[in-house]
């Protein structure tokens, strides 16, 4: 008789428990930061920016980020589930850092109106996300594969940020931060 610490069913449930925490947490953080930063169309400053002809419709961003956050949550759950794996702590740290940088991008761009700084930040996010995927691959290849759509979107978003910066050299000053009303009688 072989002694086991945990059955396959117990191991699966451990992963599911991690995913039940990571997926909603990442989705919630993304939604919260977006709402607090007044991201997307409907933001007067953003609406006033010049956009390339190939700029996706607004609904695409919400759909894509929802899918990406779910995939990131599942990937992170796989790494958290890989107890005892060499490099796990570093992979978790890299993931956390790139996620914090990712969450910082939205207020930097949409609330602070820092187009150029947001471009440089997304380059840094992409570099950390690539490093994260590499560290995930050494622990769970499937976790790294789950990050590939995120990496592809970050690449696209980096090109988009570059183009937005190019088209809006004065983007930071394009619209006032707070609306003011002047009534003349």
Structure commentary:
- It is elongated, with a radius of gyration of 20 Å.
- Helix content is 72%, strand content 0%.
- The relative contact order is 0.14.
- The chain has 6 helices and no strands.
- It is an all-alpha fold and 185 residues long.
- The protein has helices spanning 8-36, 44-48, 58-81, 88-111, 115-139, 141-167.
- The N and C termini lie far apart (93 Å).
- The chain has a single domain, classed as Ferritin (Up-down Bundle), CATH 1.20.1260.100.
- The mean pLDDT is 90.
Total DSSP helices: 6
Q: Under the CATH scheme, which architecture would be assigned?
A: Up-down Bundle
CATH superfamily placement:
TspO/MBR protein
How many strands, which pairing sense, and closed or not: the largest β-sheet? Answer: none
Main attributes?
185 residues, single chain, elongated, Ferritin, mainly alpha
Describe the SSE topology.
Layout: H1 8-36, H2 44-48, H3 58-81, H4 88-111, H5 115-139, H6 141-167
How would you summarize what this structure contains?
The chain is mainly alpha-helical and 185 residues long. The chain is 72% helix and 0% strand. The chain has helices at 8-36, 44-48, 58-81, 88-111, 115-139, 141-167.
